[in-house]
Design goal:
The complex is a heterodimer of chains A (135) and B (127). Chain A is an all-alpha fold and 135 residues long. Chain A has four helices and no strands. The termini of chain A are far apart. Chain B is mainly alpha-helical. Chain B contains five helices and no strands. In chain B, helix 2 crosses helix 4, helix 3 crosses helix 5 and helix 4 runs antiparallel to helix 5. The longest helix of chain B is centred in the C-terminal third of the chain and has 31 residues. The radius of gyration of chain B is 20 Å and the shape is elongated. The chains are: A mainly alpha (135), B mainly alpha (127).
């Protein structure tokens, strides 16, 4: 061994080597959506303060939230909220020690993804129908 | 393995961080509370879509809606605070920026929570 060059061993695999399994993707999305909601709570505060402040502030908020950028942010907030909620429920199930087998992990992660997108679309369709009915 | 902890430390069960599993537990406690509160909050928001100021003011200020939103704001901002603290502790390792961010985190979540709560009180009590 003495004097021989160390063979070029592979380094331990890191993120760029893995094909991201679904639970891994859901895990980081849980943190990202949590961070998004953290900032998004400013919208909730703005909405409440604007309503408490009077018609002008309420109209200003309304103009923003009904603009295309406002709607885009609100759509993202809706998805982050449903995703973080379903992901949170998945974590609570895991906290009880259940749902850890490979098929269950996969199923729970898929349910988080499909459920959050489904709930988001459902909420927006219902909202647009309600808005259409009100006008 | 020799047990180095004193009997008192073992009974307290707080570990070297001196706060035991309180952080973990509060994260779960608020998470469980957030589920029904968030569903209620979303329903309130949907019911307010397209309403004018007077209607929004009246609905948000009505007792049941106001109480639900206050509970939602309290549970959510507390959950935000401990969640963001974990993120900060995971990624920021230098002591000074870490402490600064943890302080900012508390300022932000308390400010957002109290500002929202103030708005609800103002809507409810009409001051």
């Amino acid at each position: 061994m003495a004097g021989s060059k160390a063979p070029a061993r592979p380094l331990s695999p890191h993120m760029q080597i893995y094909r991201w399994p679904l639970p891994m993707l859901m895990s980081i999305l849980h943190r990202i959506t949590g961070g998004g909601l953290y900032v998004g709570t400013l919208l909730v505060a703005w909405w409440l303060i604007a309503t408490a402040s009077g018609p002008n502030a309420y109209a200003t908020f309304g103009n923003f939230i009904n603009s295309w950028i406002g709607q885009l942010i609100l759509f993202g907030y809706t998805w982050a909220l449903t995703h973080h909620m379903l992901g949170g429920i998945r974590h609570l199930i895991w906290d009880t020690g259940r749902g850890f087998s490979p098929s269950e992990r996969e199923w729970l992660s898929l349910a988080t993804a499909v459920g959050s997108i489904g709930l988001t679309v459902l909420l927006w369709v219902v909202s647009y129908l309600l808005m259409g009915g009100a006008q | 393995m020799t047990e180095h902890r004193t009997p008192l430390a073992r009974v307290r069960g707080l570990g070297s961080a001196k706060s035991g599993t309180e952080h973990f537990w509060h994260q779960r406690l608020t998470a469980v509370a957030n589920v029904p509160l968030t569903i209620a909050f979303v329903l309130i928001v949907v019911s307010l879509l397209g309403r004018n100021h007077a209607a929004a003011q009246q609905i948000l200020g009505s007792p049941l809606v106001a109480i639900v939103i206050l509970l939602f704001i309290g549970s959510v901002t507390y959950h935000m605070r401990i969640g963001m603290q974990v993120i900060i502790e995971d990624y920021v390792h230098d002591e000074v920026p870490k402490l600064a961010l943890i302080m900012l985190n508390t300022f932000f979540t308390v400010a957002v929570g109290l500002a929202s709560a103030y708005a609800i009180f103002k809507l409810s009590l009409g001051v």
